[in-house]
Amino acid sequence: MANGAPLLEVSDLNVAYGAVRAVRGVSLSVAEGEVVSLLGANGAGKSSLLNAIMRLAPKTGGRVTFDGRDITDMDPERIAAAGLTIVFEGRRVFPKLSVSENLLLGALAGRRRGANGRDQGRIYEMFPALADRQSQLAGTLSGGEQQMLAIGRALMSKPKMVLMDEPSLGLAPKIVDEVFERIERLKAEGMTMLIVEQNVAMGLSVADRGLVLSSGQVVQQGTAAELAASDSLTDAYVGGS
Amino acid sequence: MDIFLQQLVNGLSLGGTYALLAIGLAIIYSIMGLINFAHGDLMTLTGYAMIGVVALGLPFPVAILCGLVAATLAAMAMERIAFRPLRGASGASMLLSSLAVSTVLHIAFQVLISARPQALPFPPMFSGAMDLGFARIGNIQAISIVVAVLALIVVNAILYRLPLGIAIRAAAQDFDATRVMGVQANRLISLAFGLSGVLAGIAGVLWIAQRGSVDPALGFNPVIKAFIAVTLGGLGSLQGAVLGGLFLGLLEVFLRAYLPEDTLPYREAVALTLVVFVLLFRPQGFMGKSEAVR
Amino acid sequence: MTKNGLFGALALTTALTSAAGIAAAEDTLKLGYIGGLTGYLAPYDQPSLAGVEVAVDEINKAGGIGGTMPIELIVRDMRSETAQAFVVAQELVDEGIDVLITPCDVDPSIAAGQVAQAAEVPAVTSCASTPTLPGVVGDYMFSNYPADNLQAAVLAQYATEQGYKTAYVLLSPETPYTERLPEYFMVAFEAMGGKILGVTEYSMGQQDFSAEVTKISGLDALPDVIMTAAYEPDFPAFLTQLRNAGIDTPVLGSDGIDSPTTLGLGPIAEGVVFTNAGYADEGSDLAAFYDAFETFHGSAAESAFTATGYDIVKVIAQAVQDAGSTDGPAIRDAWDAVKDVPGATGTITFAGGNRVPLRAVALNKVTGGELDHVGTFVPDAASVPGPDEGDH
Hints:
The complex is a heterotrimer of chains A (241), B (294) and C (392). Chain A is an alpha/beta fold. Chain A has a domain at 1-83 and 161-167 and 192-231: 3-Layer(aba) Sandwich (Rossmann fold). Helices cover 33% and strands 27% of the residues of chain A. In chain A, the strands form two sheets. Chain A has a six-stranded mixed beta sheet with strand order 6-7-8-3-9-10, sandwiched between helices. In chain A, strands 2-1-4-5 form a four-stranded antiparallel beta sheet, covered by helices on one side. In chain A, strand 4 and strand 5 (69-70) form a beta hairpin. Chain C has a seven-stranded mixed beta sheet, covered by helices on one side. Chain C has a five-stranded parallel beta sheet with strand order 2-1-3-4-5, sandwiched between helices. In chain C, strands 11-12 form a two-stranded antiparallel ribbon. In chain C, helix 3 (42-61) crosses helix 13 (305-323), helix 4 runs parallel beside helix 5 and helix 13 packs across helix 14. Chain C is 41% helix and 17% strand.
């Protein structure tokens, strides 16, 4: 179990798209080396929360600190440079760029941590399927390969923490296993992660702790083991609280 | 046959100039969804800057360099002043803003310089023609083609070799994801405007070499042509912009060269009709629009 | 912005110089001026207006027309747009102008002239030179500049005298000037025994003339001379590309290229011959006018369009003085009968000319970056094509 100082701290965060309040007063913290799963039904506000942390969704209140710095109003590129990155829902690799160009860009945010765009061997070793497709356009990869690329691209910047948004979305079960196997490996290497996952079993399998979101609010939290054993967890997925 | 070859060279020369303009428009459109109608005024500015430098008695290459620098800085200033505050606004708002910038520049040129054309004679190397045996190629046509090809090779190298160039292509596909890669949005957009500015400046030099004079409205006609080229090529596609520019240049020259004299008054109409036909059968243009995400 | 701001201010200045006259409207001649002070007509209407201002100032300093009637000049920019010419003409007529000066092109002059015609306000185009213009608009429309057929005849005569046997013509059907002047030239040149090798058309503002130039260079034999009525920015572009292609055939142009831009082209423009309304030989009236112009404006006159602008006001002043009133029909009748009015470019006669002036045409040759006076001609009537000749 990780028990370092909080690396990411979110307090009383609100997100609204016009009149629609997607996240209401959420507070959470993730310690260094810890893996936390955000669980909850579709529309519970999980992705909005991650995007708002990266300042890609409109925050209407609250505070976010990362690695001891207030990043509430920092530009996404500076947040990334500070060592916090995101693997987007739906992957969002650059479809018209080659695999190797995608990885090269991934390193830009980590220049201060010694990341080098040409130094891609580590990623190809971790995801051998990509090694054979270095000059292939990312848009022509399979869904699983694109997910590998999206994770690889995030790792190129030598981040201190990765936000991972629905890594299993739309993938065949066999591929999901493969992806989570890599996430396990990252955790073993000590990577701090906040993972949004609809697949509860999967999400909890790699997590130290979990939070359950419903209608934009935290309705339950605990260790992965506690949550796995909880009955009320299913309620959150059918919209109760 | 040699006449045909000469007209082909004429078409490639004109098309190359359109392509330089079009690729600048396409870079900006692909990144921020803006059709920058003030793009042509950068050509005009290049011309005035050159006239000023020539009047100071400095050598012509210095004038060209200063013209290009002026266009580049003006493009970046345009972004900073007129477009940055509107970033993320609708395409229509930005289009109107670019028209406003263009109008302001026109009036500034008219009031501060002159509404009348100012002559800008080019050195002798730009005049005359080379006899290649099978065809006579005008120096300026040859220079236009060589410069356009070189500029496109350099742009290609920037966009495909330099990390920030790759980031420009990435931003055209997914702007937010590009920012998360640690690419500063302001720096990237500023660089893209700078790149489009220097291309407009090069196009301006080539255009004015053919034209002999600079007036406030110089850039209007070419920017419309470049816009047609970008549309033909597929909005936001960089390769498409080059293809569209070459196609339009060749089309215009060949229509003017080979339409019977009686039908010459209709050549612009014929050219635009052909463009409409291309778009009827390929509404997405030559290269589709998948590079443009918004 | 331009209309009410910059040029409004201009109008105001001029109005102030004759402020005394505003109080007693009958004692003032309200002279409306519509010009393309911005846009493609600016190279002609700006100098023309500058010349008008010199004449108005000169007359007002002497107490006005006949020493008693100052001129109030009211200026409007029509931005080189025909529709705008119509709009501002209506504004000026509503303001009660007595005489109207219309832009340097035929279409806006027709638009503005028709407004004046309907209000029985005599109108004159500053430098549109289509000889049919006054006839098209009506009996209140006058022209001022040497007409297209007159210029064409002088050019054809010059070409023949130079021994040119063949000519190639570049024209644009977009304006009567760019189409008809070359057509008159073809009629006159063929009548004098010359041969037209070919005609090609361009679009105004097309800028790329490579296809046209290649057509000329592809002829079995180059023509002895190339003639066009193209003006800025088309003429510099065409000439630059023609010379760049290594074709050094002599080029004849018309008054549309009477502009510093042509001289500014440097060696490329060397040898170009064109017509205009006058050449300022030493000691001539025109040279005296250019001195007066520089004194008034503080800068040298850029072209003979300043002189023709000056001439209009002199003619108008003569007509008003003869009419003895600011009454439209009276001015019109008097104007139609004026003879030998001393202008900057020579004497101007309207009597017997159907509202088209009889005046000389000067031929200029670009030599060493300066204008050289080839001669000033009044062509013999037989060699001038009729206004309707050569039209297809």
